[in-house]
Amino acid sequence: MPTSFLEIVELPDGRIVLRRGDDEEALVTLEFSADAKAFLQGQHIEVAKAMFNLGVQMAGSMADGDYEQDYNEESRVLH
Questions:
Q1: Structural domain boundaries of the chain?
Q2: Nearest 5°: CA angle at 52, between 51 and 57?
Q3: 56 in Cβ contact with 48 (< 8 Å)
Q4: From the CB of residue 18, how many other CB atoms can be counted at a distance below 10 Å?
Q5: C-alpha distances in angstroms, 27 versus 15, 17, 23, 33, 47?
Q6: Are 4 and 18 in contact (CB under 8 A)?
Q7: Beta strands of the chain (E only): which ranges?
Q8: Which domain of life is it from (predicted)?
Q9: Using CA atoms, how far apart are residues 44 and 50, in angstroms rounded to an integer?
Q10: Is 65 helix (H, G, I), strand (E, B) or coil?
Q11: 27, 18 contact by CB (below 8 A)
């Protein structure tokens, strides 16, 4: 199976997407509110990169079987 590079792209509408380098379809989309962008003082791209990086690492761990869920399936409060 060929390996595909992932890229992070800020779209003209302000959304930030993670996608395969050879595909236009977004795998994951992040959208920061105006308030969040103001709070982050223009560093929302760096925050998005960190969020995507951690997400890809976690997905890799899950694929390798190295990740255990530590939450109750009935309780879906994420914070």
A1: 6-61
A2: 100
A3: no
A4: 20
A5: 13, 7, 10, 20, 17
A6: no
A7: 6-10, 16-20, 26-30
A8: Bacteria
A9: 10
A10: coil
A11: yes
Q: Are strands 26-30 and 6-10 parallel, antiparallel or unpaired?
A: unpaired
Read off the pLDDT of residues 23-64 as tens digits, 9 standing for 90 and up: 899 999 999 999 999 999 989 999 999 999 998 888 888 887
CA distance 42 to 30: 15
List, in sequence order, every residue forming a beta bridge with 7; answer none if it has no partner. Answer: 19
pLDDT on residue 58: 87
Q: Return the CA Rg of the chain.
A: 15
- Tokens 């590079």 locate to 5
Token duo for residue 40: 């982050």
Q: Which amino acid is at 11?
A: L
User: The tokens of 37 are what?
Assistant: 């962008």
CB contact at 8 A, 26 and 18: yes
